[in-house]
Structure formats: structure tokens, C-alpha cells
Design a protein that fits this description.
Radius of gyration: 39 Å
Shape: elongated
Largest sheet: none
Helix content: 40-55%
Distance between the termini: 83 Å
Oligomer: single chain
Order of helices and strands: HHHHH
Structural class: mainly alpha
Strand content: under 5%
């Protein structure tokens, strides 16, 4: 793809200026510019990196510019407990929650709750 011939089409021109230029080239009034895409691409790659980027000062400036500006908090671990279906586990949970609440939970109340939670196998 070193040299590729460009053939402008006046019908595809997006502006009046482009259309006039395409017509002039099509009529032979203007010469088509030779374009070396590979050479242009290589030159663009060279120009995309500035001289300072090739030094330690440039690397430090880039690091400073891209450094996070806000402190990120660390996530806290949470503990998840699963129950086994054992009524004693529910009794223990009820007792633990009753210690934290102001409602009195008796063993009879826990037993009633456990009985209501059982599936009816009728």
C-alpha cells in the first residue's frame, strides 16, 4: 500500500469546495496528489510521542497525571451464617435476638414459632 491512486468522485464530495476540487482533478486541471500511506503512518507514530515523554521527567509527569486522586476504602468483611433446619439453631437465634431487643422471648414463644414454621404434612 505504498502508493495508491486516489480518484475523487465529485458526487461523493461533502462540501462545495471538495466538489470543485474533485471536478478539477477529474477534468485534469489539477494533479492528484500522490499519497504514501505507510510513510504517513510511520511519521504520525513518531509525532505522537513528544520528546519529554522519552525522559524520566515525562514518565514521572505521566504517573502523577494518572495517579488516583481519591483514597479508596477497603471493603469490610461480613459474616454470613446459614441454618441447617435444626430447631435448636432457630432457638439459639431467637435467644440471641431477644438479648438485643426489648421484647421478652420465652421458650414457649420460640416453641410456638417453631411449630408454626413446620410444614403441614396432612
Amino acid at each position: 500500500m505504498a502508493d495508491e491512486e486516489i480518484r475523487p468522485n465529485p458526487d461523493q464530495a461533502t462540501t462545495q469546495e471538495a466538489q470543485l476540487a474533485a471536478e478539477s482533478i477529474a477534468e485534469g486541471k489539477e494533479k492528484v496528489t500522490d499519497i504514501d500511506f505507510d510513510a504517513d503512518y510511520a511519521a504520525a507514530q513518531q509525532m505522537s510521542v513528544s520528546d519529554i515523554d522519552r525522559t524520566d521527567a515525562g514518565a514521572q509527569a505521566a504517573q502523577k497525571a494518572t495517579a488516583p486522586q481519591f483514597e479508596v476504602s477497603q471493603p469490610e468483611e461480613t459474616r454470613t451464617e446459614t441454618t441447617t433446619g435444626n430447631p435448636e439453631d432457630y432457638k439459639q437465634m431467637a435467644q440471641e435476638s431477644s438479648a438485643e431487643s426489648t421484647t421478652e422471648v420465652s421458650d414457649d414463644l420460640v416453641k410456638k414459632a417453631l411449630d408454626k414454621g413446620k410444614a403441614d404434612n396432612s
